[in-house]
Amino acid sequence: MADQSRIIIIKCDKCKSKIFKYEKVGRGHILRCYKKRILEDNSVHEGKIVKCSCGNKIGVDKGRFIKMNVVHNV
């Protein structure tokens, strides 16, 4: 069975503002956001560090993707 994509909104864990509109493919947690799948980007880039406008670190730019700081809500 082929994985279907869906559009999700990624928000800052600290201030809840919208960071990315992202095309998610497959199941599981978002460990990487591939740049070609980011449909809307509201993040702030300081060198390779990717942050929310509130200053919260979201991830690290690794070239083709952003390695996310993962917080698993249980």
Describe the structure.
The protein is an all-beta fold and 74 residues long. It has strands at 5-11, 18-25, 32-34, 38-41, 44-46, 49-51, 57-61, 65-68. A 5-stranded antiparallel beta sheet has the order 3-8-7-6-5, with no helix packed on it. The radius of gyration is 12 Å and the shape is globular.
The radius of gyration is 12 Å
| Fraction in beta strands | over 45%
Measure the end-to-end span: 28 Å
Structural class per helix/strand content? Answer: mainly beta
Strand order, main sheet: write it out: 3-8-7-6-5
SS elements, strand count: 8
Provide the helix percentage: under 10%
Q: Give, in order, the helices and strands.
A: EEEEEEEE
| Mean pLDDT reading | 91
Query: Largest sheet, described in full?
Result: 5 strands, antiparallel
Dominant shape: globular
Supply the number of helical segments.
Answer: 0
Question: Low-confidence segments, ≥5 residues, pLDDT <50?
Answer: none
Concise description?
The chain is 0% helix and 50% strand. With 74 residues, it is an all-beta fold.
Q: Which key terms come to mind for this protein?
A:
74 residues; mainly beta; five-stranded antiparallel β-sheet; 0% helix
Topology of helices and strands:
Blueprint: E1 5-11, E2 18-25, E3 32-34, E4 38-41, E5 44-46, E6 49-51, E7 57-61, E8 65-68
Antiparallel strand pairs: 1-2, 2-4, 3-8, 5-6, 6-7, 7-8
